[in-house]
Amino acid sequence: MTVLAFPRLVSVIMPNYNYGRFIAQAIDSVIQQDYRPIELIVVDDGSSDDSLERIAAALERPHELSRAEVISFPENRGKIAAMNRGIELASGEYSIILDADDFLSKSYVSRCVAELEQAREEDETIGFVYTDCNLISEHGDYLERGRSTAFDPALIERFSFIPEPAVVLTEALKSCWPYDESIRRGTKHHKWRRIIEAGWNGRHLPEPLFYYRMHGQNL
Fold first, then answer.
1. Residue 218 lies inside a defined structural domain of this protein
2. Strand locations in the chain, DSSP E?
């Protein structure tokens, strides 16, 4: 695989709670990116399954990540608490919050970074890029294309339309940090609403560049 070397570090933050059966594929999708440099920060939120063993096994395999760090909470504190810890540790110019049950196509980071940098040449208020996805079943079978919509800040008042693995300027992400850890549902909407209300805009890249897994725990 040809790896495209770019100067800007990308931080991938992966909150996890009891997704041991999925997380190795998520980690592998980060390792297999055609973009460098990337750091991976996995924050396990007090999982009671075999997540920590699966994470360790996935990271024992050879990889070219600039850094791989695993944080383990002794008890479940919620996704936003895990996300906040990962954001605190992120040192990249760009960041991605990747759910542990989803995974990225190999060109996800390179395509999104290129799109974001081009967009920012036109408008410096653009702080993130998001894409369409491939919807898959719990077992990885393709279901259909999941489509997002063109960016409109007014839409965030009505519904959540920005998928979680959007590539975002770490500056924008940290400008609203820490996020409210009392929120247990609608965590993604809370995060993006805060960022948009802070004056950041986004760009939609209408290509299905990641895989969103449909299963009983996220429907």
1. no
2. 4-16, 35-44, 67-72, 94-97, 103-104, 126-136, 142-146, 167-169, 201-213
